[in-house]
Design brief:
The protein has helices at residues 29-39, 44-51, 55-62, 70-79, 94-104, 108-121, 126-141. Among the domains are: 29-87, 434 Repressor (Amino-terminal Domain) (Orthogonal Bundle); 106-141, no CATH class. The model has no long low-confidence stretch (mean pLDDT 79). The chain is elongated and about 80 Å long. The protein has 157 residues and is mostly helical.
């Protein structure tokens, strides 16, 4: 049996006071999660399937009844394909601001296209990635043939 740790004496004026001050969080993490989930068109069921977290747990988090651990937040962020830091406003770096600026200049279709590339690029080797980029460069420099002019059809008599 392990010996017990010695009892720590608490000064009389500190009894019942937590050693760590409790501060109301500045971010309602549940609202942030719900917002990102909605922006991405994901349901709680989608997040459940991607993370293994129960839908009822996700509901409790989104409604502010439960605060997830950082490990759980990381799972949720990965499921929504965002950075963990995105859950905490004001935690952005200059690189994050540059990325946001670039994304702001892209159309929705371009963002969707790049997201698809990102999704599949994780399984590619560096050589395959270079090959894909070379193919894209080649395709972008090829001038498409001018559209064919189709003569109007004549009505049959």
């Amino acid at each position: 049996m392990r010996p017990l740790a010695p009892l720590r004496k608490i000064p009389p004026n500190q009894e019942g006071v937590d050693s760590v001050p409790k501060e109301k969080p500045k971010v309602n993490i549940g609202e942030v999660i719900r917002s990102y989930r909605g922006q991405r068109g994901l349901s709680q069921g989608d997040i459940e399937r991607r993370t293994g977290l129960l839908r009822c747990y996700l509901s409790r988090v989104e409604n502010g009844h439960t605060v997830p651990s950082l490990e759980t937040l990381a799972k949720i962020a990965e499921a929504m394909e965002i950075a963990l830091a995105d859950f905490f406003p004001g935690a952005e770096t200059p690189r994050d601001r540059d990325t946001q600026k670039m994304l702001g200049e892209l159309s929705e279709d371009e963002i969707r296209f790049l997201s698809e590339i990102k999704k599949y690029s994780t399984t590619l080797s560096d050589g395959d990635k270079r090959l894909v980029l070379a193919m894209i460069r080649k395709m972008a420099t090829v001038i498409p043939p001018p559209p064919r002019k189709v003569a109007p059809r004549r009505a049959a008599y």
